[in-house]
């Protein structure tokens, strides 16, 4: 997992962070957080767009997946993610009950 921080120019203020990894052609996002006082200013969108742009440049990343809080589903949908509600998973998978699994395709997989 890789932690990326969004901080002020003087490195004094944390404006947000994201935890993600690439495995088998999929960019998995474990956590995106923006402090309440900074929400609505585009910081979450900026972090997501920068991470997805870097993944596209890698060339071997085909989709992005995450497990969203129900209150953040609309945020991710505005970024092009599709929600898969009511999915059943094996107990060993990294999803939290009550959250919504979401995906966004970056490019078609090569055959």
In words, what does this structure look like?
The chain has 111 residues and is an alpha+beta fold. Helix content is 20%, strand content 35%. The protein is built from 2 helices and 6 strands. The protein has helices at residues 43-58, 73-78; strands at residues 2-7, 14-23, 26-33, 63-68, 82-84, 100-105. A 6-stranded mixed sheet has the order 1-2-3-4-6-5. Helix 1 (43-58) links the parallel strand 3 (26-33) and strand 4 (63-68). It starts with a strand and ends in a 6-residue tail after the last strand. The model has no long low-confidence stretch (mean pLDDT 90).
The biggest beta sheet is recorded as: 6 strands, mixed
The percent of residues in helical segments reads 10-25%
The tally of helices reads 2
Shape: globular
Which radius of gyration do the C-alpha atoms yield? Answer: 14 Å
Oligomeric assembly: single chain
Strand content: 35-45%
Number of strands: 6
Report the mean per-residue pLDDT as an integer: 90
Helix/strand class: alpha+beta
Termini gap: 27 Å
What sequence of helices (H) and strands (E) makes up the elements? EEEHEHEE
Unreliable parts: none
Give the spatial strand order of the biggest sheet: 1-2-3-4-6-5
Question: What is the gist of this entry?
Answer:
With 111 residues, the protein is of the alpha+beta class. It has 2 helices and 6 strands.
